[in-house]
Write the structure tokens for this entry.
Amino acid sequence: MSQVEHKRGRPYARIASRTFALLCAGATWLCVSILVLLLWNIVSFGWDSLSWDYINRFPSRFAEKAGIKPALVGSLYLIGLTALFSVPIGVGSAIYLEEYAKKSRWRTLVQINIANLAGVPSIVYGILGLGLFVRAMQLNRSLVAGALTLTLVVLPIVILATQESLRATPSTIRQASYALGATRWQTVWYQLLPAALPGIMTGVILALSRALGEAAPLVAIGAATYVRFLPEDIFNDEFTALPLQIFSWTSQPQKGFHEVAAAGIVVLLVVLICMNALAVVLRYRFSKNKRW
Amino acid sequence: MFLAASTREQFASKSANLDLRGIFELAIHGLLLACAAVSIVTTVGIVFVLLFESVQFFREVSVWEFLTGTRWSPLLKPQHFGIMPLFCGTLLVAGGSALIAIPLGLATAIYLSEYASPLVREIVKPILEILAGIPSVVYGYLAVVFVSPLIRDTIPSADLFNAANACVVVGIMILPMVVSLSEDVLQSVPRSLREGAYALGATKLDVTLGVILPAAMSGIMAACLLAIARAVGETMAVTLAAGATPNLTLNPFEGIQTMTAYIVQVSQGDTPAGTLEYRTLFAVGLALFVSTFVLNVFSRWILLRVEEKYE
């Protein structure tokens, strides 16, 4: 602060400090109230359309008869398949980077590459999926093509979360295991993975909630928005997903469809909240067994 | 004799065991290496797919025309392939959302890091996590149903779907990212700097604005760049909120189209594969990939330097 201010004894210093604190607190509570306002608006707007019928019906040209069944089923299939693909690959990469790879240029390259992939917009993955899975591998617009594309989107999240939780396991566990004559894989499988499980599961659930909400890559691979049947053959049948269905309803000009979209958002958010609650429960149950 | 034979047998079986185990370990090592290689293959795949079709596109449209042209209408005759309008739209949305998210997010981060009691932090941080977990299509819905009428009530001359609309929702969307990244940076400023400043008789305001913020400045800049990169790549909310008219303008109340929204428009239409119109998708994708890549690399470079500074 300038000398002049010091000579006057800085009469406003305290008030300025208080005002700034209040401003910052105001910003924080503004953020919080934005969230509450948003959720309240959506729920109150979509509440009337929400019913068991709505969940159990197929989409329709008439807003009051539209339902969300194929989208919900499609989304559940998608996250199931995405988990199937992304968990082994993601956890495997993380184990490789943390436990197997020596400090080398190659490791640094992979690590930087993963950090960059995390920042690639999801629609770009969609274009890759279109070129690679839909056209080159002839998977068409099937659930498998969609799930593989989403796997690429969420892979960096799974890898980074797993790495972090492997890094958090104490090195004494590794040393003790090696001292007893265990091989590297035995150490990983019997000691490190069980210890890191809560962190890995939290990361996986976070990644799957991201996959559940992604619409852009699915639009890019050309997934349908109006499907009147449930997918049976995961390699061939067309599918739709919750965020896609919400997107297509929101793009309609009629207000009726906006209400149906709001109800769809409520369903989507409920599924997301269930997944996150599961993450919290799992983390709590497994962390009770930790002994360090 | 007998004893010797049995030891030899034992030894042989043991070494066979060891070999089997060695092979198993090696196989596992290879498998894990293959997993890690997937991420490299992904990057190569992205670059290859984008370049492969883009090169064919640039055979018919010159790179210069693509980068500097001021009109974008590849789906209508007469065709124009200047990406400037899309680029300008993207910039407008990213800049506008940054104007909303950065001041609000930074103030929140300062409050959480420097002022808030542990209880308040315990309440606010999960709420911000929820905000960060809301899918982008939901923000698009909010833009269409709530924000757009609000803007049209205030400024009647605004288009139904406009850039300001997108700025508001994308701003809210990247807000949690700005808060959590900046808060991490603020927390990493060493305690000794704070204590030194208090010992010299500084008020809390002096410490925050005069000591901590300057020390954390480069990290905060990196956080803001990451958030802007996210806004540049944001797709569904922008597609729904900002309209679909490529428009070279800086007026936030006009309808615009971003690079991402154009990709969605082409994907939803029935443009046949292999045509020039279809290849615009990959050329625009390449432009989008390069812009977010540059932003990300730059911000990570800044963050890396910050980490070195305080280690």
About this structure: Confidence is low (pLDDT under 50) at residues 1-8 of chain B. DSSP finds eleven helices and no strands in chain B. Chain B touches chain A through 88 residues (CB under 8 Å). The two ends of chain B are 66 Å apart (CA to CA).
